[in-house]
Amino acid sequence: MERTRFLWKKFLFTALRVAIGWHFLYEGCVKLAAGSWSAEAYLAGTTGFMAPVYHWLAAAPVIGGINWLNIIGLILIGLALFMGCCVRLSAFVGAALLMLYYFAYPPFGLSLLSAARESHLFVVDPLLLEALTLLCIAVFRPEGYGVAGLVAYIRQQRPAAGAVADESGRRKALKDIAVFPLLGLFGWGAWHNARRYGVDVMSGATVQINRQELSKLKGELPCGKIGTHTISRLVLGGNLIGGWAHARDLLYADQLFKAYNNEHKIYETLMLAEAAGINTINIGFPSNALLQKYKKVTGSKIKVITQIAADVKEESTLFNNLYKAIDFGVDIIQIQGNWCDWMVRDRHVDRIGRLLAKIRDEGYTAGLGAHTIDSLIACRDAGIIPDYYMKTMHHDRYWSAHPRENRVPFETDGANHLDHNKYHNNLFCPFPERVTEFVSQATVPVMGFKVLAAGAIPPEDGFQWAFVNGADFICVGMFDFQIVRDVNICLDVLAAIGQNHSRSRAWAG
User: Fold this and answer.
1) Cβ–Cβ < 8 Å for 452, 394
2) Among 168, 219, 273, 354, which residue has the fewest nearby CB atoms (within 10 Å)?
3) What mean pLDDT comes out for the span 59-82?
4) In Å, what is the CA distance from 496 to each residue of 220, 357, 476?
């Protein structure tokens, strides 16, 4: 009876140790496989009494080394625990690493409101529980099966020459060896999952969208056509999800967005947007991998418009980003606005035409973006017409807009001035009357973006101005808590325009 109880204890301890080891190992391998993983956003958004230390680490030039230390530490600790070697040391180090995570977002005080954790508990959370478990393993050193036991058997239980090996020792050695095929089984399962989805899986069932908010929807978003694609009139912008924004002189805004929009929150946002009737997102090129993962994991049908860059100096690399976008499985391909501006400014309009033609040759709808209306006028005058335009469209009746007499073409992608009467990341449609004139003559659909002037204009005002002045679609960056309200505002604006017949042109899409 006593021996049976002892064996059960060994099995249970081994299972506990292997489970924690796999947790560490998997986390490390996933971060390694991601290639571009960084702890920067996690560290930058920390709270609590140790926040200054974490913030310093996030801003330090050694962040790359910190990323690698984290990945290597997770993998080595995980392997040691799973295989049952150097258990005491790995348990101590693992507990210390978990406590560093714990104090990054401590579950007490104001950090109860933090969105960085999947569990919002007071003082005790899964990190603390796992760390305490590892400390118990390190201090009490319960016996289990693994590499250490196998090595001890080889060293201490080896039968003398000519003697018969102890049968119980052989059985114990076989149990110690069992961790090897178990690791192979776990590894094969994870590899098979990654091969199937191409990514680490975050099940859609674990992401809960705000159903209560959805109940406030006033109706269904109308749609239009761009090429062969049916697009919702309100399109989700990708800047906030990508972690960058025009924020005038608010230097912390990008870090704030990255800290809030972790991957779980991005999934919530995308799922909520789709449930609210937004069927399209327009993203910067760096967000392609994330959207590809989201669609594979959730089975989403959201249409992805990706913005591509083209080198204004090197002819040989003109199509590089186009081919990469195709590999990501996007739906619509658009020349990014600042790159269009630069190619026009630097007198490479012909390259815009060749790039649009190549997009079409590959079977994709081809869009052309711009911040400065001069860029689109130059392309039109050169006979270069895309399948749709994407143009910054907002009025300038807000406080931080600098005087018209000081505005110049292409300043949106230029230097920021300390003089308040000049550009400082504050105005994105510098010549609104010229824009509305161009749009009124456009023969293809027009998607307006920056319609709120990066938060300077209320959505009721910005949406109306863009639609009244000819936008067929508007692209708006939204946090999850803004989506339902923005959809309702869009519905109200479109309904009012339909009743008043106040639109400057017929719908082109």
Assistant:
1) yes
2) 168
3) 88
4) 15, 38, 20
